[in-house]
Amino acid sequence: MDGPAVDNTTLHRVWRILLIVTALAVATAAYLAPVILIIIGGLILIIIIGRLFYRGRDRYIPNLYSRDIRIYDDAYRNFIVDSLHAMRQCRIPGHTLVWEASHLKGSPPDDSDELLLDLGVWMGWSTRAASDASGRMVYGFDTFEGLVEDWPIEDEMVVKRGTFSLSDPNTQRLMRDTGVTLSDGIPNALGRKVHFTKGGTYETLVPFLAEHPGAPIKLFHMDLDVYESCLHALETCKDRFVIGSILVFDEYLVTNGELLAFYEFQKRYELEWRYRAWGLETWEMNFARVTSPWKRAMYYAFAIAMYLLDGRFIWRILTKRFWHFWLGAHPRDILFVLGAAGQRKSVSLEITGLGKLAGDP
What we know:
Elements lengths: L9 H23 L1 H20 L20 H14 L3 E5 H7 L12 E5 L5 H10 L3 E5 L8 E3 L3 E3 L9 H10 L3 E2 L2 E2 L6 E5 L2 H11 L5 E6 L4 H11 L3 E9 L8 H12 L2 E9 L12 H18 L9 H9 L2 H8 L7 E8 L8
Parallel strand pairs: 1-11, 2-3, 2-9, 3-8, 9-10
Antiparallel strand pairs: 4-5, 6-7, 10-12, 11-12
Protein name: MtfA protein
Keywords: Membrane, Transmembrane, Transmembrane helix
Pfam family, one: Methyltransf_24
């Protein structure tokens, strides 16, 4: 089942067109100057030979290819490897959250008390997109003041506390360009069936669930980024998960963040589950909401330029990540990652067995 038009992937289609145009230009140049063909052929041969002898395969995972997973214990390392094998069977071209929300459209009956939760909403567009796709009420939670704690992203960087605050000048510019307005520091619904709660999930989730006694969680979108916050949210909501609950993790492929939190959670409660989709994170989808066509084009150009400048898998040949990717990545992962001007690290799964949670009061 394909998602509705609410899932906008124009940015990535533009990126793929640029790749095709570049490939055609290189092919033309190689035809006119055979020495270029010899150089390209030599580089490809080096990579092929390197892949035959490279010992780092399966040690560095999408989409960062940064941390050697051998630093983890055997159980977690095996979980990561098994997860990647399963996820490769369910790649999707679009955004995982929208894909899952679109599958909820038309069900259940209007009197259902099922909850759709979005944890970590920034300007609220992920929440609105989930509502548009599902046709249902979605509840969003955020401090709207940025990260509540520092976010270490494996061995690459630390995103500081307060990042993603709505008071940031760049965020305010994007809010204006997408038509987002605030009331008492909370984004307005803009005509969607959404409700936003301001505050950290440490303080807001328990009261919210108390206001909806016994209501099961059907869709749980996790975009809190930080391991501690993710694990806390899972623990807080555990009694509301049921067979068929869909969990979507926006930053799943960060081994010391959401992935680790879910690993520990499912292990503790002996959950049964299956992966459903591996696709795009929601961040760059905000650019598709820019109301002015020419400004939207500028945002797309900016996003592509930033992706090229980052160059982790394209031109930064002196970095370890470049070689982890080209020598160790699964061939289809290479195509999957390079086919988007953004990050494919959002993953969804479905709970198929409650394990120890079935016996909790």
